[in-house]
Give the backbone structure.
Amino acid sequence: MVAGEAKPGQFVMVRTSGTLEPFLNRPISIHRIDEAKGIIELVYQVVGKGTKLLSRISPGQHLQIIGPLGNGFSWQTGFKRVALVGGGCGIAPLLALAEKLLENEREVYVLLGAQTKEKLLAAEEFSQLGCRVRISTDDGSQGKKGFVTQLLEELVNSISLDQVYACGPLPMVKGLIKIAEEKGIPCQVSLEERMACGVGACLGCACPVRNPDGTVGYKRVCHDGPVFDAKELLLDNK
Ligand SMILES: Cc1cc2nc3c(=O)[nH]c(=O)nc-3n(C[C@H](O)[C@H](O)[C@H](O)COP(=O)(O)OP(=O)(O)OC[C@H]3O[C@@H](n4cnc5c(N)ncnc54)[C@H](O)[C@@H]3O)c2cc1C
């Protein structure tokens, strides 16, 4: 049921069944969608209690999943050449997006960044789809040494892009929005804000935005996002 409704950029709230510890469900992006088989794939990094419990489940064990949640990425038919930029586990939602974008024979550049090559996600899968993959690692253990924003800087200086899509840690997102803005390239970013309910009720993930009339407002990352047009985000005070 989730697979039938899911679109790239959406997420699910996950809990290991049979425990109230941790109390809140954890948001995990939908990595891949197989509508025909009714399957969604998730990839995650173990960082704390919730993801540690998740890593200990056995095949066949049930999970509680609420979703698909959030808005997901959007695209226009005219876009021909796009870049997908992912950092760390922010790479997760971009694979389903790449699959969708390639259905219309777009030229898809994928820039992946990780701390080390062991932490790099899905590079092979993007290549197999036919994306043009470039990699950076903080320690230089795979691809270019440095941050993935440097790869974007090089790309926008060598070719013209119709759209940038991105997901990753806040400093990365801030850096790439600046690069895209300077070149006038539309940019959609998925924010990895910590969230509690996942459905817009608790306001725990509110993020400052620029309203159309210039005033400052707030949007809920879980319900109004997690994907935002970079132009509306006010990330400087985050
Ligand atoms: C919309 C969305 C989609 C996400 N998709 C994925 C995904 O596909 N794969 C994946 O591995 N992770 C993803 N995350 C992050 C994931 O939700 C957190 O890593 C997870 O909730 C941590 O839970 P925990 O109980 O293991 O750790 P906790 O004990 O809750 O946290 C441990 C530490 O992890 C860090 N942390 C926790 N939550 C976040 C967060 N949202 N962003 C950045 N750092 C955080 C903090 O430093 C914290 O101290 C996503 C987050 C959001 C909001």
Remarks:
- The CA atoms of residues 117 and 142 lie 5 Å apart.
- The domain at 2-69 is CATH 2.40.30.10 (Elongation Factor Tu (Ef-tu); domain 3).
- The longest strand covers residues 107-114.
